[in-house]
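Sat 14:20. Reprocessing the chain from the morning session after the first attempt stalled halfway. Input below, unchanged.
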Amino acid sequence: MDMNKLSVPGLERGLILIEVLAENSEGLSFTELQNKSGIPKLSLIRIIQVLLHKNYIIKLERKYKLGYKILSLSNTLLRKLDLRTKAFPYLKQLAAQTKETVELEIVDGQALIVVEKMESEESIRLFSQVGLRFEHLHAVAPGKVALAYTDLLPGYIKNHKLSRITEKTIVNANVLKHQLAEIRNKGYAFDDQEIRIGVRRIAAPVFDGHGKLIGIVNIAGPVFRIILKDIGKLGKLLSDIGLKISRELGYNCIIPALNRN
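Finished this time. Tokens:
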């Protein structure tokens, strides 16, 4: 790929400016920034104004320094990396107990991304992969967890219109809202072939030390193994696993369902 064709001068200059400030933690004056970055004066003025407005940099005593937004982003990344590390042994435990495919997702905008997975060793199983993206949150158990424990629902309904994926997909907003209330009450979510015929999923929330949803753990398998009479028992297992991972991350509430919006 020819990187020259992908060049975005303003973006590149903004990144250069951030990198220069990262190497000079004591801060730099405008003149020093210009000399070290090589960015033309007028462009530098515009870039600084944008980065100040977005809190990526701050100005103290005529010197520019990296702002707290960078620290916030770094902490978010570290928490998510910590999530995978802390969750891994519990995911192994869950896979051993259920014999089904286990996934760990994080919320990315109005979608979910699988950040860890363990596939079932059964001959008939659900294949998964890290990086898999779920955009139809209303049609899949981990997506329902995300909608139940965040403020995503109004914007999601507006943008996605609760589209029908299978004949079993919930497309009525009131029915979905009732389901989300049940999820917050029980501490786990369930979807019955709502995104893929023949597949059922059960999911539970994972919270960080501030009580914020940071991840979702779920199992997925064929309908002939994940049978309806076992949903309550499996849901309790998922909820317990989610709570154990949450506690590893500093969450100190007793029941996940207590964290309500």
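The chain is about 45% helix and 20% strand.
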